[in-house]
Amino acid sequence: MRNAGVISGVSVAHDRATVREIESASSDDVQTVVKRLLACEGVSEAFSLQTCNRAEAYVVTDDATDGRRALDDFAPDVRDGSVRHMDHEESLRHLMRVAAGLESLVLGEDQILGQVKSSIETARELGAIGPMLEDALLKAVHVGERARDETAINEGAVSLGSAAVRLARAELDEPICASTALVIGAGEMGTLATKALASVNVGELVVANRTVSHAVHLAREVPGVTTAAGLDDISDLLGEADLVITATSSPDYVVDATHLSGAETTILIDIAQPRDVDPAADELDGISVRDIDDLETVTDRTAERRERASRAVEAMIDEEFDRLLAAYKRKRADEAISSMYEAAEHVKRREVSTALSKLEAQGDLTDEQRETVESLADALIGQLLAAPTKSLRDAAGDDDWTTIQTAMRLFDPGFGDLPGPNAADSSTPRVDIPDDHPIEMDRDVSEKEVSRRMLEQLSND
């Protein structure tokens, strides 16, 4: 299995982009994005992640230029300053930070790790995850789990749902215990918002969902929900609510100005991606529309309390990042080493066969004698290749790809030039390994001479 290639990434996230820009970058679903990227020239692997505050994509190519080209159209309608392009090492580190919750709007929140895992499964089902992304993504998940198990990064962390409740409590004219709250959406984010509202003993708590049975199920799960409803009567529900939190997965607006004609003083907090509430509704008298951007002030205070934990996670990422790079380098060396052993084994089989044939001509051989000849050949190969094996692994650790390339040429004369570090990425140079590694012998050179030259070269190395 080949492990060549470099990862290129692109991100449109809350730290640089507005809700509208993230929404634009998420216009296609994850499956569509991954399929489109796989169809791009030179792309061998692809991955995409979409949450309420980020849209990202990653590809593996033999050359970083191809990767950048494949991602150029990821967010065509988003201003350049909102799009972050990442090279191989930036992509690896960023994936770890995302999974650990360091890149989340709510520092350390737990939902992102589940979203990363879900996106991995989606890409895997499409056959888009190969050896490069497999290692990178599994390492990111490992870091995310370590961060939450070994640090307090998620202690006291608020979800977007609970952050919305905090914002609502600050803006409501009356105590929340005397208010009527409506949650639109019964999925993961809607559930979190419902639980957060129930925990502060809101006066009336209504859950509405397009599929009524899902709303009923959530009402049974969360004590404090007074009513479960569908969206057919959404105008009536909005007219009675003081606070509305929307969190559906609808591609279109669920709430617009016409639905709010009967509302008087209502705060709508939209935590959906794409947005559920038409921004134009904010222009209506008595109506206040808030979105994810408005949650920054709430989450900043939470981030300050976990600053020490975040520093510990940063150190953890540094450690795991170095391990991942070392693993990639070892794989590059192992490919060359594998070719070396395959070439040696190829010559060994021929020479052992020749030797046994000559010995047979001198008299019958016992099974024990045959095993002795085989063992001798295996021992010679093992001893002769031990030193170059260590040298190749040391070369990979030192980024000495000239030595790796020389080894590949030695054991596979048909092997082409490896591109230099500038052609792709200095940490992960391309090493293409053919499926077979036979020694191509000149017609004027005997098999024994090929073996002698090969072993002499190995001894000199």
From TrEMBL:
Tell me if Oxidoreductase is a UniProt keyword of this record: yes
What are the residue boundaries of the Glutamyl-tRNA reductase N-terminal domain, all occurrences included? 10-151
Its Enzyme Commission number?
Answer: 1.2.1.70
- Which residues fall in a compositionally biased region of kind Basic and acidic residues? 432-455
Q: Where is this site: Important for activity?
A: H94
SUPFAM superfamilies per the UniProt record, alphabetical: Glutamyl tRNA-reductase catalytic, N-terminal domain (SSF69742), Glutamyl tRNA-reductase dimerization domain (SSF69075), NAD(P)-binding Rossmann-fold domains (SSF51735)
Q: Where is the Quinate/shikimate 5-dehydrogenase/glutamyl-tRNA reductase domain?
A: 175-298
Spell out the residue ranges making up region: Disordered.
414-461
Which InterPro entries does the entry mention?
A: 4pyrrol_synth_GluRdtase (IPR000343), 4pyrrol_synth_GluRdtase_dimer (IPR015896), 4pyrrol_synth_GluRdtase_N (IPR015895), GluRdtase_CS (IPR018214), GluRdtase_dimer_dom_sf (IPR036453), GluRdtase_N_sf (IPR036343), NAD(P)-bd_dom_sf (IPR036291), Shikm_DH/Glu-tRNA_Rdtase (IPR006151)
Q: What does this protein do?
A: Catalyzes the NADPH-dependent reduction of glutamyl-tRNA(Glu) to glutamate 1-semialdehyde (GSA).
By sequence similarity, the record places it as follows:
Belongs to the glutamyl-tRNA reductase family.
What is the name attached to this protein's record? Glutamyl-tRNA reductase
Originating species = Haloferax mediterranei (strain ATCC 33500 / DSM 1411 / JCM 8866 / NBRC 14739 / NCIMB 2177 / R-4) (Halobacterium mediterranei)
